[in-house]
Amino acid sequence: MFESAELGQKVTKTDFRRHEPVLREKLLEAEWKLAQSEASAIVLFSGVDAAGKGELATLLSTWMDPRRIVTRAYGPPSEEERERPEYWRYWRDLPARGHLGVFLSAWYERPLLDRVQGRISASRFDEELERIIAFERTLANDGTLIVKFWMHLSAKAQRRRLAALAEDPLTAWRVTKRDFRRLKLREELLAAAERMIMRTSTGRCPWHIVEGLDERYRSLRVGGILLDALDRGVTEGPARRAKAEADQPGPPAPAVRAAATPSLLSTLDLGAKLPKRNYELRRPKYEARLNVLRRRAREKKTSTILVFEGWDAAGKGGAIRALTAPLDARDYEVISVAAPTDEERAHHYLWRFWRRLSRAGRITIFDRSWYGRVLVERVEGLATENEWRRAYVEVNEFERQLVEHGVILVKFWLHISKEEQARRFRERQRTPHKRWKLTGEDWRNREKWDRYEEAVNDMLERTSTRAAPWILVPAEDKLHARLEVLRQVCRRMDAALP
Amino acid sequence: MFESAELGQKVTKTDFRRHEPVLREKLLEAEWKLAQSEASAIVLFSGVDAAGKGELATLLSTWMDPRRIVTRAYGPPSEEERERPEYWRYWRDLPARGHLGVFLSAWYERPLLDRVQGRISASRFDEELERIIAFERTLANDGTLIVKFWMHLSAKAQRRRLAALAEDPLTAWRVTKRDFRRLKLREELLAAAERMIMRTSTGRCPWHIVEGLDERYRSLRVGGILLDALDRGVTEGPARRAKAEADQPGPPAPAVRAAATPSLLSTLDLGAKLPKRNYELRRPKYEARLNVLRRRAREKKTSTILVFEGWDAAGKGGAIRALTAPLDARDYEVISVAAPTDEERAHHYLWRFWRRLSRAGRITIFDRSWYGRVLVERVEGLATENEWRRAYVEVNEFERQLVEHGVILVKFWLHISKEEQARRFRERQRTPHKRWKLTGEDWRNREKWDRYEEAVNDMLERTSTRAAPWILVPAEDKLHARLEVLRQVCRRMDAALP
User: Fold this and answer.
1) Tell me, what's the ipTM?
2) Mean pLDDT in chain B?
3) The model's pTM
4) Among all residues of chain A, which has the CA nearest to that of B80?
5) Which of residues 208-237 of B touch A (CB under 8 A)?
6) Residue B102 backbone phi and psi in degrees, to 5
7) Residues of A in contact with B336 (CB under 8 A)
8) How would CATH label the architecture of B3-247?
9) Does the structural domain A265-496 have CATH classification 3.30.70.20?
């Protein structure tokens, strides 16, 4: 795989002088087109040591307008980074639409080194590569152009280059003992890299292997490939994206339910009631328990994420208040999900949720959540069919990463009947200090009840995973719903914090 | 000062039951009004241990709609927080317009404990209080309502309360040995707190001392004071803000310059020229030096911030590129300051710069900066006169905090004549790949050259501090300007990194 990048390819000074200005101008132009587009771009460098990855990243910022480029290199994760799933720092740094991100030692680095040094098995390595594929596909589907470079050197050239760097006092700092140690693992590295490149070279996010021996050669080559990718990716952007949409089969369409097949929602018993006396009697027990649990979570640095979805007026606010009453305000945060800000709109729709992941040991309560994509955005036509269909997979992957990181994730759907909603809307209209809660939109949403119901049923079916199951709460009776939420949160935290 | 909060004030259960629902409803209403307004609000709790600060923070989130409340408690700073000036984490957490922030152990905590434990002198303590006053004034001027509570207990009550908490297994976790140790320092604490409260009780950000013995009493009292503040602050908001504007004298108006008194800009010799040969000869020396320096900065974890301001077409982009060429892309970031995002608009104008402060050891290059407030925003009328006049003080304070934290801060004004600008505009129009750089706005700005010049002169005079002086760079000759920028950055980094 790497042979053609060990040939010692070179570009003469004269040739470089002739080609560089042209390439540079075209790259500037491509960058400008990117800035005007809906797309973003990621250039990722990986490869053997001393093959010029860092120099290339610098070069791109010199060639193009650095104001639209964000360069990120990753070392060992910081304290704050370790407190979130591994991909948190990559999500945080993703370029906004119109921008170019240059990533060094990013999401490939850790799995690759883990594999080379034998810390993970071949099958675990494959799993991690699957995760990368899913991540890059998610970005590509959202209009991010991804160009990946494996910078290569022959064994001899690499040894020479390291020695040369080490000798020159101006560059000696760039070579450490670690580099020479890693040289010994070259065969293992190349074996793992080959597998990595084969597995993760997808049609839309291909790897390019470039020989890094000659600075002029590698500069023109990388620049040329990038220009080509930008040119095709950005000018053909909309058309290409539409095609990607069409190609993407997406999960199979929801089965048309025979009249006899009940949906998940319709099987829910809404008759559950809890007399006030019983509520007052049983609540303190759960409150005390929850108080103990949240302290334990704090000590063990285990984060909890609670998701509340449900019909308008189903009582999400009340349930959240019942839940937070026994908590210490220092331990939790309620995030109310409304329309995204413009910064959020300039990124993948999951970006706004990634950025809100709390430090370790805290409880984050989402009042509405990432499920908006498959509920309101689907029904109101704010997302295309392919977009909301993809979202099931993306959400499951997002939640899997949370759960694997050790987050306690509990998702509630608060359910009421259409009649009960009408009753509550009317009550809100009558009560002066509740009137502001009711808008014309609520009445309009109500008219689409059936389509929302279909969306909810699909959501429950497709995103109730073993790691993150939905809990359906009959909320016709508010006290019953509140106690049920308290009880379930205690149960789940109890199980996770023995 | 604290005597009236040691009387053992209580509220009966009956009274509480009568008042609480009314207060709650009114608070909800006030919160709603706040959400609709341009204002934000901060409730800050400080006080003796065991006086109910945490419970009150929780209570507010229960009483009001927690979706508009962000509660923050601060422990020892994290690794990422220590890498920025102390106030970074507070700036980061400031509530957006329409939101309420509840702050526990915030900016008062560290200076107070440092003083109590004798780690800082009385005069140093006073200086820190001055910083707090400036910080709160900055926020108040921007429409933030600040309500501060000192929660108090008599010595006897405090001892009893701690003992009671320690006995009950459900609450014992809340009391640590540290609390009992701190009890011994009560006199020192109260002496420092008295000074703190006296100094920092300003007209717009007053302290309220509330006795924390009785839960019902303190809840109603804090709720009542907060309601009162919100009611007055938010309904009278615009009127009050206008009054504050009027009251604020602001720095004296720029002196009318006698024709004979030259401005800073007009004294700058624009004749400096550097032949290309000399440039190519001298540049490598500075580049090598800069490369050494940025590595040293990385090792010593010293951050560098470079600010570039100047006329349109003065060559900021070129100077930045010349500067970044010898740098490693992993070490620097170029931040191009354009129109603020809506999240940024929902905060104080300095918020967007605070949030971009990098981790330690990196170089951040601002292509245009916080000086937009006193340049374009002043001239184009985007900021009121009081707003841009205040900005001089606010910017100086911001930069002082950077410099005190050890940041190397260098500010460049790239200067060209009006004629040279015209020449460059025309050249941009002629060159195809430069044409996009020139917009109608550039020509319009040019018509206001004199007013911009006045603004620039005022800025240079008022914000060239000893800690952060402006460097005026004659940029009529591009090569001269680039070398001068390189030279000055080396000089300043050299001085700071011996």
Assistant:
1) 0.75
2) 89
3) 0.83
4) A80
5) none
6) -110, 115
7) 67-68
8) 3-Layer(aba) Sandwich (3.40)
9) no
